[in-house]
Amino acid sequence: QVQLVESGGGLVQAGGSLRLSCAASGRTFSGYNLAWFRQATGKEREFVAAIIRSTLRTYYADSLKGRFIISRDNAEDAVYLQMNSLKPEDTAVYYCAANEAPYYSAIYYYSNREKYDYWGQGTQVTVSS
Fold first, then answer.
1. Phi and psi at residue 86, in whole multiples of 5°?
2. Reported confidence tier of residue 71, pLDDT bands at 50, 70, 90
3. Average pLDDT of span 59-83
4. What is the bridge-based pairing of β-strands 10-13 and 123-128?
5. 27 pLDDT exceeds 80?
6. Per-residue confidence (pLDDT) for residue 74, from 0 to 100
7. In this structure, what are the phi and psi dihedrals at residue 120, rounded to the nearest 5 degrees?
8. What is the pLDDT of residue 60?
């Protein structure tokens, strides 16, 4: 089992940047697939980005490609989300998630929140116009 703790959220003006961090503790971090999801008030939790095991293969929601970058540091047991050119519609609680799905499964279900077993408590990101 792995525990996830997000940090780095806050208030930023439109056009600005934030870097979210998710620290993991527990079992071997490098064997986990990791993802970021977000949930705006009154909306469903949606996929943002994922990074697959030690392959470092990454996936993004189509609407976020080019602005958000997911990365991981297995030595630090951490995953990051660099968010650039932020817009008011990016305002949401951002969640880190993990699972141990095998590679052939992870590359198909990376955006499905039901496939993730471990979640952090979330960090609020607010983008002002």
1. -65, 145
2. very high
3. 94
4. parallel
5. no
6. 85
7. -85, 180
8. 97
Q: CA-to-CA distance for 24 and 98, rounded, in angstroms?
A: 9
Q: At which residue do the structure tokens 């992870």 appear?
A: 106
| Residue written as token pair 């990365």 | 71
For 44-122, strand residue ranges (E) read 46-52, 57-60, 68-73, 78-83, 92-99, 118-119
Residues of 104-120 as b/e, b for ≥16 C-beta within 10 angstroms? Answer: eebbeebbebebbebbb
Q: What is the pLDDT of residues 37-53, one digit of tens each?
A: 999 999 999 999 999 98
On the CB side of 41, CA atoms within 13 Å amount to 5
Residue 123: how many CA atoms within 13 Å on its side-chain side?
19
What tokens were used for 35? Answer: 């993802």
Extract the tokens encoding 17: 């940047």
